Amino acid sequence: AQVALQSPSPPASRPSRARHAMIPRAAKRGDGWGKEQRTSAGRRIVADLGLKGSEVTLREEPWAAVLAAGELGQRCDWSFAAATADGGGGAELLRSPATGLRFASTKDRQRAKAEYLAFEARACEAMPSGRRFSDLPASLRLAARALWRGACDQGTDGPIPWLGLEDHWHSLSESRRGEFMGMGELCAGVVRRGLGEGALHPPDALGAARLLAVIAVNAICITNEEFREIGLGLYLHASAFNHSEEPNCSQSFDGRDLVVRARIAVKKGEELTITYAELAESSRFRRAQLRTQYLFDPLEPGAGGTPAAGAVARRDGRLEEVLGRGAQGWEPLASGLAWSPEAGFAPAQGSGCAVASDTVVSWATELHEFWREASDSGDDGRKLQAARKLWEAACLGDAQGAKWQLGVGHALRLHVARAGMDLAIEAQSWAEAAAWARAVCKSEAEVYPNPWPVPACSLARLAKLELYLGNFEAACAAGTRALQTFGALGIDGSMCQEVRQMLAQAGAEGHGRTQAMAEQRRQNKAAAAAELADRPPKGRHEAVGIDLGALD
After folding, report:
1. DSSP code, position 114
2. 231, 204, 45, 23: which is closest to 115 by C-alpha?
3. Res. 238: pLDDT tops 80
4. Which helix (H) or strand (E) holds 398?
5. For residue 253, what are the contacts with CB-CB under 8 A and spacing of at least 6?
6. Alpha helices, H only, 294-340
7. What pTM was computed for the model?
8. Band of the pLDDT at 30, cuts 50, 70, 90?
9. Which of 2, 15, 217, 382 is deepest in the core (most CB within 10 A)?
């Protein structure tokens, strides 16, 4: 049974013009959604009942959501449906003249108009010459939409709901609070222009700044079915999920609606957790991001993450592994090297950790600089060529004179393989793209927990490439593994339907090829038998190959 968690009821005094927009939308959840608990460490959610893997724990529409800058004009601004086969069925989007935003249908445009589009249109008219509302950062646009909705919802019934979310305001540094105040002044001005003269509850700079701080630690990146970022949303109930280095839940999106499912079986009373950061990167970089943005370290005692320390250490070992050529072949070095696109390589940390030699660090640094220069060039052809050279030098292990190579799950190896795959697809070099996709799947299997949606998407992409190349058996293998992972996670969207169609096609094509090969063998055998039957009979000495002249 689905249970609705209602947002606070709208005040009766709200103008009827905005009533449709402000009717609270239900956040539906499954039986396993637990009660919110408040502890000294903050809020958390525990399971009321035992959960099986793939069960939905939360389905929620956002309080406010915005598209990423690169998606504006490419997707419906309300439903986030794409104008391409990615999710919009190829439908032409309707354009709003006042804002430039696009919508999949008149109904979607009317829903947006009732909630934020009218305000946004007025704000666009009042923007300084040469500036557009869509040019603002996604977080500021999200704050403006939340404030527009909040201004209409606010009344004598109590504060608007996002005021109860954590913002860490008093723990922020003076410089960070100053940044939020500067953005808050800009945001409050935009919102006041959108509300127009005579607004009952115009926001001030401090209120807007506090909301921006709320967004910084509570907003969730919205992704498409391939888990590529397409927007940003503020989800009131989902904000209660805490981070774990080994989460028992995973999240996906149906348009802009958030769906959280149990990834594995969860016992009654156990906390439901998600991850706030990318798992396929060394924990030192992830911990630094969490300390900076969310002001906590997941591996500190009392942070709720210490039970996952063993899993983190194993994952770091694969993400940082460097191999050296020894007497018995390639062997892991005593110390690995962590890598991130921003920081480059860093030797292992912690007491008891071996330190990589200067020559290994120098070799790795050269790799990073080579890749960074190619990535910064903006030339896709040069970047693809750099990916090939780096892969040959540091990943294959057969380069002449090579002393070291990156392990199968190393972060740089995975990063280069993903970039190579995307660049090869863009260049329509399908055989090379399939080779890169195989490398991606192999690396992701080493570093992500099982099941996890990202490897499933990569397997689905590999199946499509293998099918295009006529590798039907390989396409079936990759597609089957993708569906198994999606099934374990309870995901069954358009990507799964496409994989099923590919499997049916690969099976049919493979069966047809097998029949054709069997028929060809039968014909070859019949032709050989006919040729043998047409030959004249040979003498006994010819049959055994005797040379009569040699006998003489």
Report:
1. I
2. 23
3. yes
4. none
5. 80, 222, 223, 224, 259
6. 309-319
7. 0.84
8. very low
9. 217
